[in-house]
From TrEMBL:
This is Phosphoenolpyruvate synthase. Keywords: ATP-binding, Kinase, Magnesium, Metal-binding, Nucleotide-binding, Signal, Transferase. Residues 623-950 form the Pyruvate phosphate dikinase AMP/ATP-binding domain. The keyword Nucleotide-binding applies. Catalyzes the phosphorylation of pyruvate to phosphoenolpyruvate. Pathway: Carbohydrate biosynthesis; gluconeogenesis. PANTHER family: PHOSPHOENOLPYRUVATE SYNTHASE. Residues 1-21 form the signal peptide. Gene3D superfamilies: ATP-grasp fold, A domain, ATP-grasp fold, B domain, Phosphohistidine domain. It comes from the Bacteria. Its EC number is 2.7.9.2. The lineage of its organism: Bacteria, Pseudomonadati, Bacteroidota, Flavobacteriia, Flavobacteriales. It is an enzyme of class 2 (transferase). It comes from Croceibacter atlanticus (strain ATCC BAA-628 / JCM 21780 / CIP 108009 / IAM 15332 / KCTC 12090 / HTCC2559).
């Protein structure tokens, strides 16, 4: 289900900007938080009676029965209410003080309820956080009132089947935090205490890491031995904390009382499906618990609960079922380390049970689980080939990644907001993942990965990382440079081309770097991924745990390599072999640059062209490849391509020949002089950094001048006629896209994807005219220039044309690559789609599929973007909230894409050149199940990285047909 965020236009224009201006800064909020920590009452004002009729009374003046009575608790300070109103931030909520709909907060992507969970976490890890002293403020919160409110809230929330389907994960996770029954949270307390001790006493850090990464009963002994060994050295505070830790761990790992489940099941209707299942479960395991059978049966029961939840009619019974599900999850989490498989078959069984339980807990959507269920089930065969076993590993690893992605998608925005004023919030997502079945699943997947790597003689070699199989190479290449670890999600980040970056999530406007690895992959066909693949920049995806392990090397010189088989090496530069050192000597000598071809440019065409006038041969002559290829597609698929207008190179050059204000000569003279000056500085032994700084400064002046450049009246008249002819309106009468289309794109060895500007869905006449100049200026931005500079020896000869096409308000859009990227199969297809317009190419966490030649499709990754854009008819972007309970692409859509790819492969070589056989990179979208084409270009990979002998050597040939008996001992 997709829920539109709607705003009145007047409110958006007038009020929203005013409110934004009135928001408190992060610095102001931080000061208030510190103030709350120091006050006996914290964020609370005083204790009051809150009466049923809406009135308030002093703490000594109870609400009379005749008006319905009331409840007593604290009220909020005025400046806390100010933060709520101005910043939509909620600290130290008293639930009994809160309206249910406001707490669910669907208009703001459920931010309020997520903040409540985040607050609970901060209070746990930071000695009460804003309630540091107020946690002892007697009467401020009444636990029985909070629990009663929680029950009422879930009775209100759970009546809607649609709400449960769309928000199952969030609802189920909230059950762990919102009071509605007497309960303990020993697991959370264990993680908090171990972190606190480790932060304050470094010798405990190894045990803390073990507790967080491999939680099991045996850790109690480690803490006891630590306490005994350091008895005389431990500060008194640490002694008390280790005592508490041992006590809590002992209680947490007490033997399971299976009868509790039977008692909890009694709230469900007698004879109902779930009650019968739960009673059968408790009967089977009442006397003895064989860990493997218990976990498998508990996983199946969790699966039944998720499947049957909306068939339960009573909301209180639904809540009881969710409580039983979370109890089962907790028990599986605790007992999973005790299941120690001895054979491959047993390990596959464990991975399946943990994967199913994780999906049943909501970390994977139900339709997503149905796509992979059969792939993870243990084969009835007694043996599998290495290729078949590798496929199971890939699918199992994906379940860990999808689960972590779900936590990031649901909580990421609010964590990022809180991190601006409270850095401790950054660890919330990591804590949530580590406390989930994804952690235990990840450990088991790691075991399988290590076994397969040994059998295949393949292994990652990433320094300091225990679980090498948690790392997966994406793009081949090698690099040498300083390692920079960026743990927080960032929209923009200033990078150096000589450094290796580890990102939680890479910025969409990433400039050239030596190498990257990311926790969040984004998708295989985003602009960033394609540019990295094109330039041979090594790129890998890693786990949340791995980024912590690698962080210790932040700031050090490291060697980094990714093979074309996905093998990853990351180690200190001092440990490089002679062969590895020679790579960079060769690279320095052999680095080649290419020239933008200018011999066919025709600058004589100085009027707009119709898209129908163009074909593939027009590329580099009148316009760039976007317009030329779209013109070609218009001829091939007239009903799938919109009409369009193209502003050719000649119009750009005609305007650049005008006199540039405050300079001698034209805009074009200033541009050519810029590159001439750069060449001269190099001959005079200026450093490349100095040359680049000078060039970028002149580029900035040029962009600013182009932004103010007068447009010729003759051009404006011609453009108006083109709009009337192609769009049946005047300029400003229909929303359009303005797409930069330069002659530097889609060269034989450089794609240029996404380097220059696209102006989205603009309708206003003046904004369209301004957009034209902005697009002309975009090749001279820092990012575009730096990417080009690596490859081009004549960057002054980059000419932009502009493709103008009417906006299609697609429901979902994405990219088709006519090649299997993940398996390197030329016959397969890779597609990545996001909801709304433009998401997949911008690097969103997209829904990706591998469509093979056997008429089947395998889900590579689900979409995990909480927001998407639609294109309203009045222009601009409309932000919408996404939920994930249904796939983006239907079977029909996938069939249409398969048919399109087949037509393109056959028709394009016939209508262009015989050697134009692909693979191709196609941008497309769907509206009302109709496929629309927006772009086609060559899919370019870096041949040097693919063919490097060194990269081959770190990923030797593997005999995929090698048979592995499932009875093989681990």
């Amino acid at each position: 289900m997709n829920r539109k965020i709607t705003f009145l236009v007047l409110f958006t224009i007038c009020t929203f900007s005013f409110l934004q201006a009135q928001q408190l800064s992060n610095q102001d909020i931080s000061k208030r938080i510190e103030e709350y920590k120091s006050l006996d009452r914290g964020p609370y004002k005083k204790i009051e009676w809150f009466c049923e009729d809406g009135t308030r009374r002093d703490s000594k003046d109870p609400c009379p029965d005749k008006i319905g009575g009331g409840i007593q608790h604290a009220s909020y300070k005025d400046n806390l209410i100010e933060i709520q109103k101005k910043n939509h931030l909620f600290f130290s909520d008293i639930l009994a003080y809160t309206e249910q709909g406001e707490f669910w907060d669907s208009r703001n992507n459920n931010s309020h309820i997520k903040q409540y969970q985040l607050n609970k976490y901060l209070q746990r890890i930071d000695d009460g956080w804003v309630n540091r002293r107020a946690q002892y403020y007697r009467g401020s919160v009444q636990s029985e009132d909070e629990e009663e409110w929680g029950i009422d809230f879930y009775n209100w929330l759970l009546w809607s089947d649609a709400r449960i389907d769309a928000n199952y994960f969030l609802i189920r996770e909230s059950v762990k935090d919102i009071p509605h029954k007497s309960e303990t949270q020993e697991g959370a307390i264990i993680r908090t205490l171990s972190k606190t001790i480790g932060d304050n006493y470094s010798r405990f850090m190894d045990i803390r890491t073990k507790i967080h990464n491999q939680p099991e009963k045996a850790n109690i002994q480690l803490v006891e031995e630590f306490q005994e060994k350091n008895a005389e050295k431990l500060p008194e505070k640490i002694k008390k904390q280790t005592d508490s830790l041992i006590k809590v761990m002992t209680a947490y790992y007490q033997p399971i009382d299976i009868n509790e489940f039977k008692a909890n099941a009694r709230v469900l209707p007698n004879g109902s499906y779930l009650r019968t299942k739960i009673e059968k479960f408790t009967e089977i395991h009442k006397d003895t618990i064989i860990t493997s059978e218990f976990i498998e049966d508990a996983s199946n029961l969790m699966c039944d609960i998720r499947t049957e939840l909306t068939s339960i009619r009573s909301t209180s019974d639904r809540l009881a079922a969710l409580d039983i599900s979370t109890d089962l999850e907790n028990l599986i989490f605790k007992t999973a380390p005790d299941w120690t498989p001895t054979t491959v078959a047993e390990l596959l069984d464990k991975i399946y049970a943990l994967s199913q339980a994780s999906a049943s807990a909501g970390f994977v959507e139900w339709w997503e689980w149905n796509e992979v269920d059969h792939l993870l089930q243990n084969s009835k065969n007694k043996a599998l080939t290495l290729d078949e076993l590798n496929q199971k590993l890939d699918v199992a690893r994906s379940q860990v990644e999808w689960s972590a992605g779900m936590v990031n998608a649901i909580y990421g925005d609010d964590v990022e907001t809180y991190a601006g004023f409270e850095p401790k919030a950054n660890s919330f997502i990591d804590d949530r993942i580590r406390s989930s079945l994804a952690l235990q699943l990840g450990n088991s997947v790691g075991e399988l990965g290590n076994f397969i790597a040994e059998e295949a003689n393949l292994s990652n070699k990433v320094e300091g990382v225990s679980n090498q199989s948690s790392i997966r190479g994406l793009n081949p290449g090698y690099a040498l440079g300083e390692l920079v670890v960026v743990k927080n999600a960032v929209d923009h980040y200033d990078v150096s081309p000589n450094k290796i970056y580890i990102f939680q999530r890479p910025p969409s406007d990433l400039k050239p770097v030596a190498g990257i690895a990311t926790v969040t992959e984004g998708n295989l066909v985003s602009h960033v991924q394609l540019l990295a693949r094109n330039l041979g920049i090594p790129n890998a995806v890693i786990s949340n745990e791995t980024i912590d392990d690698i962080s210790k090397y932040h700031g050090e010189q490291m060697f980094y390599a990714v093979s074309n088989k996905g093998t990853v090496i990351l180690k200190p530069a001092d440990d490089m072999s002679n062969d590895e050192e020679e790579l960079f000597e060769v690279k320095e000598r052999d680095q080649e640059k290419i020239a933008v071809p200018t011999q066919k440019i025709d600058l004589s065409r100085t009027t707009p062209m119709d898209l129908s006038e163009l074909n593939a041969a027009s590329s580099g002559k009148y316009c760039g490849p976007k317009a030329a290829n779209l013109g070609q597609l218009k001829q091939m698929f007239p009903d799938k391509v919109v009409n369009g207008s193209v502003i050719p190179f000649g119009i750009f050059k005609e305007h650049m020949n005008q006199d540039m204000p405050l300079q001698e000569g034209s805009y074009w003279d200033y541009l050519t002089e810029t590159f001439a000056q750069a060449s001269k500085m190099r001959t005079e032994d200026f450093s490349e950094e100095q040359v680049q700084l000078c060039t970028l400064d002149r580029m900035l002046q040029l962009r600013e001048a182009i932004a103010k450049m007068p447009l010729k009246q003759s051009f404006l008249n011609d453009l108006e006629q083109s709009f009337q002819k192609n769009f049946n309106t005047s300029i400003g009468g229909t929303p359009v896209f303005l797409r930069s289309d330069t002659n530097m794109e889609d060269l034989d060895s450089f794609t240029g994807a996404g380097l220059n500007l696209t102006v989205f869905n603009v309708r206003d006449r003046e904004k369209i005219l301004k957009g034209i100049k902005d697009v002309w200026a975009s090749p001279y931005t820092e990012r575009s220039f730096k990417w080009r500079q690596q490859y081009l020896n004549n960057p002054e000869n980059v000419y932009p044309s502009i493709l103008i096409i009417p906006s299609v308000d697609v429901e979902y859009s994405g990219v088709l690559i006519t090649k299997g990227i993940s398996n390197n199969n030329e016959d397969d297809l890779t597609v990545a789609f996001s909801r709304g317009a433009g998401g997949a190419v911008d690097g969103q966490s997209a829904e990706a599929w591998l469509i093979d030649t056997f008429q089947s499709a395998r889900l590579l990754s689900p979409a995990r973007e909480p927001y998407y854009n639609r294109l309203p008819a009045n222009g601009g972007l409309e932000r919408n909230i996404a939920t994930f309970e249904a796939p983006i692409l239907s079977e029909k859509n996938i069939g249409d894409i398969r048919d399109l790819a087949k037509d393109i492969r056959v028709t394009l070589p016939k209508t262009t050149t015989a050697d134009n056989t692909g693979p191709y990179d196609v941008e497309l979208g769907f509206l009302n199940n109709k496929l629309w084409l927006f772009q086609i270009r060559p899919f370019v990979e870096n041949d040097n990285a693919k063919s490097s002998e060194y990269l081959k050597s770190i990923s030797p040939e593997v005999d995929g047909s090698k048979t592995i008996s499932l009875n093989t001992t681990l």
